């Protein structure tokens, strides 16, 4: 019984480790997009863990470039698109990224090294955005229950409610029902 009580904190803490192994085990410093964009040379060759929503993927002969709209990460390493996006960054990898798999508007978390900046064309403007050389990429599965109301009258953990949400008539004891 004593050994069980000694191991109980280990099991409880290991259950809280929400980061997927590919991105959770990689070393990374905690630097936000705004901090880096003010002085990118100060953070060059530093490992970071960033995430966001894919804008587009371009495959070249020896590398793939993926443009991502940055969003802060939650405790599990997943981007939080309900918060304000801070800007774009580009992920460079030697792996082939299939544009159908890494499609527009999918959520992604990347661990990589700041390699400097790169010019990107947005509309008719050319802008400088941070460039990450990827060491690990995690594509998040689509999980609609992650963002819907859980039936308590308010959006679950601050995430936006589903379409047709009404704080007085939505949900119920067993969860939300959809009124489309």
What is the compact description of this entry?
Helices cover 14% and strands 33% of the residues. With 180 residues, the chain is an alpha+beta fold.
Characterise this structure.
With 180 residues, the protein is an alpha+beta fold. It folds into two domains: 17-141, Nucleic acid-binding proteins (OB fold (Dihydrolipoamide Acetyltransferase, E2P)), CATH 2.40.50; 143-180, no CATH class. 14% of the residues lie in helices and 33% in strands. The chain is built from three helices and five strands; from the N terminus they run H-H-H-E-E-E-E-E. The chain has helices spanning 2-16, 21-24, 33-38, and strands spanning 47-59, 64-71, 87-93, 107-122, 125-139. The chain has a five-stranded mixed β-barrel. Strand 4 and strand 5 (125-139) form a beta hairpin. It is globular. The model is unreliable at 3-8, 10-16, 149-160 and 170-174 (pLDDT under 50).
Main features:
globular; single chain; 180 residues; 33% strand; alpha+beta; OB fold (Dihydrolipoamide Acetyltransferase, E2P); 2 domains
Structural class: alpha+beta
Through-space gap between termini: 53 Å
- CATH homology superfamily of the largest domain: Nucleic acid-binding proteins
* Count of distinct structural domains: 2
Main sheet makeup: 5 strands, mixed, barrel
Look at the structure and give the CATH class of the largest domain. Answer: Mainly Beta
Number of strands: 5
Rg measurement, Å: 19 Å
Per DSSP, what share of the residues sits in E-state strands of 2 or more residues?
25-35%
> For the largest beta sheet, what order do the strands appear in spatially?
1-2-3-5-4
The average pLDDT value, as a whole number, equals: 77
């Amino acid at each position: 019984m004593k050994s069980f009580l000694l191991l109980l904190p280990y099991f409880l803490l290991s259950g809280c480790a929400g980061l997927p192994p590919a991105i959770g085990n990689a070393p990374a410093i905690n630097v936000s997009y705004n901090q880096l964009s003010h002085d990118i040379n100060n953070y060059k060759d530093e490992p970071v863990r960033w995430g966001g929503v894919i804008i587009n993927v371009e495959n070249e002969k020896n590398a793939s470039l993926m443009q991502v709209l940055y969003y802060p990460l939650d405790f599990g390493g997943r981007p939080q698109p309900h918060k304000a996006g801070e800007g774009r960054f580009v992920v460079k990898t030697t792996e082939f990224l299939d544009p159908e798999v890494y499609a527009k508007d999918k959520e992604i978390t990347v661990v990589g090294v700041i390699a400097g900046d790169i010019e990107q064309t947005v509309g008719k403007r050319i802008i400088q955005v941070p460039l990450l050389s990827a060491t690990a990429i995690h594509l998040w599965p689509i999980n609609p229950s992650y963002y819907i109301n859980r039936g308590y009258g308010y959006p679950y953990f601050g995430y936006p409610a589903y379409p047709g949400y009404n704080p007085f008539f939505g949900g119920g004891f067993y969860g939300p029902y959809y009124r489309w």
